[in-house]
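Hello,

Following up on my earlier ticket. Below are the two sequence lines again, exactly as submitted.
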Amino acid sequence: MSIQQALNKFIDDPYNDKVIFDLANLYYKKNQTASALTYYLRVTELDSDLVYPSLLRAGLCLEKQNDRVFSTKGLYLHAISHSPKRPEAYFLLSRLYEWSKEYQESYTIASLAESVCQFDLPSLNINVEYPGKYGFKFEKAVCSWWIGRVDESLNLFLDLHHNESMLQTHVDSVKNNLTFLWGNGDWVKPSYYDFTKLDDLRFKFNGVEKIKNNQSQVFQDMFILMALNGKTNGKYLEIGAHEPIIHSNTYLLEKDFNWKGISLEIDNNLVNKFNGIRDNFCLLQDATVANYDKILSDTNWGNDWDYLQLDCEPPRNTFETLLQIPFEEYRFAVITYEHDYYCDETKSYRDKSRKYLKSKGYELVVNDVSTDGKSSFEDWWVHPDLVNKDVLNIIKSITNTTKKSENYIYNK
Amino acid sequence: MKNLVKQVIENGGNIVPLIIFHPDTNGTGLMNPSIFNDNGKLILNLRHVQYTLYHTRGKFENRYGPLAYLNPENDITLRTTNHFCSLDDNLSIDSFDRIDTSRYDISPVWEFVGLEDARLVRWDNKLYICGVRRDTKTNGEGRMELSEIKILDNKVTEISRFRIPAPFNNDSYCEKNWMPILDMPYHFVKWTNPTEIVKVDPINKTCEQIFLGNPYSTKRDIRGGSQVITIGDYRVAITHEVDLWQNKNNNKEATYRHRIVTWGKDWNVVNTSDEFDFMTGYIEFCCGLAVKDDNVLVSFGYEDNAAYLLNIPLNYFKTLAGI
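Thanks for your patience. The regenerated structure is below:
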């Protein structure tokens, strides 16, 4: 139907809500938002089921004109008061607050909506830019960062990323937020564990049900917890910490399993970021020349540790670091060793590290881990005296091929 | 009479929405068009305002009341620009260009900026727009201005501007809605009850009253609107009247109604139609009237947010005008 046709119908029947609404929608579609607003307001004067969508569309008309925020909020508030259990108006109001940099208001409205709205109501028959329930999670993810809830923000973004089917604009925004707020520039989504995949896990360790999402790039954190059957209050030495949350092998351990630990990182910015976000501490250190005996002994945490991460890049640095670890005095139940075989031009450091760790009494339990099943970059080890043998039998997987981590962790 | 347009359509007429897609408008109000038959070619001035009128009589008022001008929050001015349009045979706009007024514009000193409700007229083979401007004095004093426009290098450009003094008392606050008389160069119907006609002189910058008729009884003040056109031995214009009041919350409210006023050759009013609205709106405004072949074209704005062109069979219009 054209505006001309709709206009003729309106003139013939000027108090018919459906007719007026159709005319308004056609003006709206043509971005003639002032005209559209006039007709939407006429609908709101009638006793009609179309009052609520008309209020929303009227607000969207003003949004598209820019710089009429006060009145736009008024329209969304009208819509909320008209239908307080419907979610669309809350979302638009929350989004508008967010765009206006009123983050606490945005967050609050989104939280209210999650609490009071009925999300199983029939959807409106027109597009009012409401993306679905996840929209509130998205607004909270954006705004919580601005109101000092960094962890919550990150978790919400990760939750969105892992678990929600989103519009492309939100997919891109979530990825950008993860990349530019917490990750490095080449942040790529690997496969992550989330609670919906619990039944597929290779081994359901103690406490696994409290994990909503993991963080490691190839499930190292899940492997550590498997090997130690969900140990709480463990302790780790993390060499090459990099990001404090994204791709971190220790964030999950710290947050959900109450581990303590020491991390080393050579990048000053990352160290500052880490110590601003995490409870456990990160040292600014060149891992290849660090005094590990002193670092470990200064903790007074004993000689048996639960986890050692070795990830320095390039392969030579990681191997040289490995040689610095005082294995004679300290034992580590689990070691993840990044040999980066796929990019090691010498193709030598994987074998060197294997020989060395084996000589120190460690057992290779998962070899040649990768994200894609092609680019082997890591081996996972345990100390057989520190890991339950039954568990070891479950988690051990030595093959002649490169493993896709997802296949390993889900026992595919 | 409610819904004049419906009656016109029932009597063989039709209506056309007037829309342009100019990046400067960004969806805000296109309003109060002025149609003109320029020697057989239909042209039109379309007013654009950068505000949006929020007007409702339902439960969902704006925070400022039932009638609010929503200008950008970082710009309290209510700005008007004018777009010169040409129409095709279907009465749709086939080209448009924003009138370049930069030669004569000065920095505005009041919040209503630009030439408002400009009517098109051709006198002495010069094409003019004439409307009210209120941005030249800090108190918002309004005066009719007569601006010649010309197409230069494919741009419609204002090439002269004459701010018309008020006759007798140039201290009056606001002079607006004077109706140009198409067949009498530089003459306006300044007021309709009693009919007052003024003649302006753009060369000597003067304005004088040349006719004052007898008052007649009306419900409200009859204010100006369209141009004054000639039909046979009569002159005809569409005027407007305003009911202004405060609602229960002491907020401003308004209703506009219209009439067709018909004068004889001696400028005595021979007929005033029943009052009417165009499309059941509260604020509608007409500043364009033209004859084209066997039809009369009426251009009007709807709630400051939309513009329409009504095509009325001449014989039916004559009935409405009491001719």
